[in-house]
Amino acid sequence: MADPRRPHGSDALDELAKRVAALHQERENAGPKVNMDRSGMSLGLRLASEFASAILVGGLLGYGVDVILTTQPWGLLVGLALGFVTGTVNLIRASRQMTQAHPVDPQASGLKDDLDEDA
Q1: To 10 degrees, the CA torsion angle through 95, 99, 101, 102?
Q2: Contact between 38 and 29 (Cβ < 8 Å)
Q3: What is the structure's pLDDT at 114?
Q4: How many CA atoms lie within 13 A of 62 on its CB side?
Q5: What is the model's pLDDT at position 110?
Q6: DSSP count for the chain of H helices, then E strands
Q7: CA–CA separation, 86 vs 61, rounded Å?
Q8: All structural domains of the chain with their residue ranges
Q9: Residue 83's closest CA among 107, 114, 52, 117?
Q10: Which of 32, 75, 78, 114 could cross-link with 65 by S-S, CB 3.0 to 4.6 Å?
């Protein structure tokens, strides 16, 4: 007996639903999976922007000291140097955190380089 909630011609709808499901399944199985993980790129952009912003902030603070104390160009030079040091410390800290979060397996086989001897 037909379901009273379904309109007439529901057999056609069932057939269409089966065809759509088959096409979806075919598409999933057809092509190779592309890894869309961009965590490496996002990490690199984050580190680069932190490094650049540390230098920029150091330079701006040094320039501000120069304007207030009229010591051109020494405040700017010291500010840029301190910004560079701060950016480098931030890079080292972030790389240590990344290494602790994802340690390297010492048993993993690496890629051979030019210095490896063929055995």
Answers
A1: 130
A2: no
A3: 61
A4: 19
A5: 65
A6: 3, 0
A7: 13
A8: 60-101
A9: 52
A10: 75
> What integer pLDDT is reported at residue 78 of this predicted model?
96
Outline where 31-112 has alpha helix (H): 39-69, 74-101
Residue in 37, 53, 62, 45 with CA at minimum distance from that of residue 87: 53
| Predicted TM-score (pTM) of this structure | 0.56
Tell me how far apart the 2 most distant CA atoms of the chain are, in Å. Answer: 95
Of the candidates 90, 47, 39, 81, which has an alpha carbon nearest to the alpha carbon of residue 62?
Answer: 81
Amino acid at 32: P
pLDDT of residue 102: 72
Six-digit token string for 68: 């207030």
CA distance 81 to 88: 11
Local mean pLDDT, 10-residue blocks, the chain (119 residues): 58 85 79 57 89 97 95 94 96 87 71 60
Q: How far apart are CA 27 and CA 101, in angstroms?
A: 36
